[in-house]
Task: structure prediction
Amino acid sequence: MPVVTGPADDPWIARWWPSLRDGEQAEVGAPRDAAWAAAVSRVRGAALAIDYGHLVSSRRFTLTGYRSGRQVAPVFDGSCDITAHVAFDACAEAAGGTGCWCRNGTRWPLGLSGEVTGSGWEWLESARGRADRRAAEPGGAGGVRVAAARPWRRGGRPAAAAAALASDTRQLRRGLTTIVEGMRIHTVPTSAALSDPGREYRASEPGVPLRCCLRKSSPDEPVWLFRYSPAAGKGPYEEVGPVFTHVDCPGGAAPDRLPVELLNNSRVLRSFNAAGQIEDGVLVEPGGFDSAVEGLLNDPVVEAVQVRSLSHGCFLFAITRS
Ligand SMILES: [Zn+2]
Result:
């Protein structure tokens, strides 16, 4: 996070930290705004941000470091964690936000109606309910972005709040989880890596899409990166491209269920006939995978469907009839 000392001619500071005086320090929130907006753009329904924060009316320099749970001077040498309060109003606007609440019950800017008061837990429940109702309105899905500030006191109920958020996440995923009747998902076995002498071992590569169990990798999970040729394309349609798998896969991919963790972005679906030739290619947005797969498999000529990333074209998994 960039830190500036006043006077500063940064446009973000001019818009969101107008109170900065000469000689004072400020944290420029533009990269955080962009990151939040990008995260929200991938969400259908509601996005709820919870952190320590401030609004334009109460900006103050909060950059600090933590080491072993103790607050220390922030030093950018990797020796401590570095954190700063979130400029929630800036984040909310960057994501097209409709609401921003403070712990004390004020709202900024207005968007979702009604006052939010009471304990942190009640506050969270209330905010969540409003977001849900708004999302349920016609045309509301995808339009609700909620940024929230200072949700609970120290000693509040973060565990319960975390459980509520986990439930929300499951709800969001349920919207994406899709079962297409008669569909079978095909993954890439980790043993496929061994047939590529050029395979690369990575001790930790968090966030990459794993083709063995169809989820994103966690930190410190050893993975293979290797060349792989999916089965469906044959002859001139045979393609080789890079894929990741676990080195030791704990399993978990359901053969009859679309893997939601790999379907929260736009994807390209390519259908192949029995001769291994491409029949069709369609661009599918999150939420539309079940009907798209169903549509392709309803064509009797289609034998298999490949799901690929839109940006890189990389193969993710294959689908056939069961
Ligand atoms: Zn795996």
The two ends are 50 Å apart (CA to CA).
